[in-house]
Automatic annotation (TrEMBL):
Family: Belongs to the IUNH family.
Pfam families noted in UniProt: IU_nuc_hydro
Gene3D superfamilies: Ribonucleoside hydrolase-like
Domain of life: Eukaryota
All copies of domain Inosine/uridine-preferring nucleoside hydrolase, residue ranges: 4-307
Source organism of the structure: Coemansia javaensis
Identification of the protein by name: Uridine nucleosidase 1
CDD domains: nuc_hydro_IU_UC_XIUA
Length: 319
């Protein structure tokens, strides 16, 4: 099993990343940190706690992280995730902070402790603005050699058919990306929108989830959440396209790299860090002969993704 830390801003697709991380047979989820992103920090923390509870995930705690990006003002993705960050179902339990939140320390200290205490190098899966990760690497650079890989959901490279200009996670805190890319972590992987927009929870997928999960209430919760996400993406992706599951794709990468196509290329945050607009710069074709610093994924085997994701949901529904 690969020890994994999940940094997230739960979020519909973050919730799926959490469930995949907790129930994939080859992942040992060490802990979860929350950050300002899809919604304010208090909401993303609460949502993480509620998802842990709803999915019966025992022995994993949430740790509060940064309440705002390093330089930019906080902004939230309410158009897509609703005001709470996780709108769309009344089946989520009220948050049991006592049991699921470790309020004794913050995310940065908790990540450092988990990484330094682990007998094996840890993978970090970062599926939100990179603020917590940048703070960790700045305050505790001794963690770097103990990080086996950092898998980031973020960015857009222009290699897919759907080409939005910017992506929420990386454009929310480009200065954090700047720090992360210069940290010395040996393996940084990027799972950009170009890849994740091929992973859509369509009607057929939702039916498969309902058919296979063992607990009708849990199946309904997942159906509600995916249905809400599909509806908020309908304008952008088309009516009936489904809900894009960006974040769990970055989770899958740490244990199923062979399900991806990828290129080792040079990547950087936009030119003027300090007043950076959040564009991603990447030398995808090696035209500029810049030194590669990142594995940028360009495709994923969606059938293998869904097998892993549905498998995790079935496991969760049995708890
Ligand atoms: C990313 O932004 C958030 O809304 C999602 O949770 C995902 O991490 C996609 O651009
Ligand atoms: Ca997210």
């Amino acid at each position: 099993q690969v020890p994994v830390w999940l940094d997230c801003d739960v979020g519909h697709d973050d919730a799926m990343a959490l469930i995949l991380g907790a129930y994939h047979p080859r992942i040992r989820l060490l802990g979860v940190s929350s950050v300002s992103g899809n919604a304010p920090l208090e909401n993303t923390t609460e949502n993480a706690v509620r998802v842990l509870q709803a999915a019966g995930i025992a022995g994993v705690k949430v740790h509060r992280g940064a309440a705002r990006p390093l330089v930019k003002e906080a902004r939230h993705h309410t158009k897509v995730h609703g005001a709470s960050g996780l709108d769309g179902s009344d089946l989520l339990p009220p948050a049991d902070y006592e049991q699921y939140l470790d309020a004794s320390t913050n995310a940065v200290n908790a990540m450092r402790r988990a990484i330094m205490d682990s007998s094996e190098p840890v993978a970090i899966v970062a599926v939100a603005p990179l603020t917590n990760v940048a703070l960790l690497l700045s305050v505790y650079p001794e963690v770097v050699p103990r990080i086996r890989m950092l898998s980031i959901m973020g960015g857009v490279t222009g290699t897919g058919s759907h080409r939005p200009a910017r992506e929420f996670n990386l454009s929310s805190d480009p200065e954090a990306l700047h720090i992360v890319l210069r940290s010395g972590i040996a393996h940084i992987a990027l799972v950009p929108l170009d890849v994740t927009l091929s992973v859509l929870a369509s009607r057929a997928v939702i039916d498969r989830i309902s058919r296979t999960t063992r607990n009708p209430r849990f199946a309904q919760l997942i159906t509600d959440l995916l249905g809400f996400s599909a509806s908020t993406h309908a304008d952008e992706l088309g009516e009936g396209a489904g809900a894009p599951l960006h974040d769990p794709v970055a989770m899958l990468y740490v244990v199923m790299r062979d399900a991806f196509e990828e290129k080792h290329v040079w990547v950087d945050a936009g030119e003027d860090v300090g007043a950076c607009n959040g564009w991603l710069r990447c030398d995808m074709d090696g035209e500029h002969a810049l030194p590669p610093n990142c594995w940028v994924t360009t495709a994923v085997d969606t059938a293998r993704f869904w097998d892993a994701m549905v498998g995790a949901l079935v496991e969760a529904s049995g708890r």
